[in-house]
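Please decode residue identities from the backbone states below.
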């Protein structure tokens, strides 16, 4: 009896740990090395999504088998356009965009922003061009960051630096770093609540023309 209680308690604790531990996604880009980095950390696991390690090619003396020529199937977007016409395509696109946006906002409102760094050094062809580019960058970057901070569940630290560089021998540069976290139980709940949007997205991504459905 005691062992059964211990086993049940262990199982419940394990499920709780798996569902309520944060999944953290880290994004980083610096144009000095030109490599986009993305990693996912969950409990003691850390998976590097990008850049992927190159697999070593094994030497194989056997002649490779000839691959059968595959017939390229049209993408769902092309299929929708051909079958429903321009108006039907626009309506389908509107449905997909609305569903994707609502799903994105639903997830974003349950995300914690752990870190955000945006550093832009802006250089134009001359002083006037630098000033114009700097003003344009301010009008774009700060509203986007403001909208992001307004929609996330919580945020811990963020830094946004836009620097006009009037040294025309240098070039513009960008550095971006962001870490976001969400609990699996929260993500699952969002997916369940957003069933309609998720269904519309999957239907659009896996759309097949009528003649293929009838086969």
């Amino acid at each position: 009896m005691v062992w059964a209680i211990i086993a049940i308690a262990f199982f419940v604790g394990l499920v709780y740990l798996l569902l309520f531990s944060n999944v953290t996604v880290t994004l980083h880009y610096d144009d000095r090395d030109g490599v986009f980095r993305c990693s996912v950390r969950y409990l003691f696991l850390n998976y590097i999504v990008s850049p992927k390690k190159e697999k070593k090619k094994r030497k194989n003396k056997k002649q490779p088998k000839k691959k059968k020529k595959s017939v390229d199937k049209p993408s769902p977007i092309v299929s929708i356009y051909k079958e429903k016409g321009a108006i039907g395509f626009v309506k389908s696109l509107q449905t997909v965009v609305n569903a994707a946006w609502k799903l994105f906002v639903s997830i974003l409102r349950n995300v914690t922003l752990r870190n955000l760094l945006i550093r832009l050094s802006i250089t134009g062809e001359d002083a006037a061009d630098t000033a114009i580019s700097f003003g344009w960058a301010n009008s774009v970057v700060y509203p986007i960051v403001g909208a992001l901070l307004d929609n996330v569940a919580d945020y811990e630290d963020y830094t946004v630096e836009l620097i006009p560089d009037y040294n025309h021998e240098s070039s513009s540069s960008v550095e971006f770093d962001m870490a976001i976290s969400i609990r699996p139980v929260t993500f699952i709940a969002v997916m369940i609540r957003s069933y309609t949007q998720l269904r519309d997205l999957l239907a659009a991504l896996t759309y097949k023309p009528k003649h293929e459905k009838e086969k």
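Observation: The radius of gyration is 24 Å.
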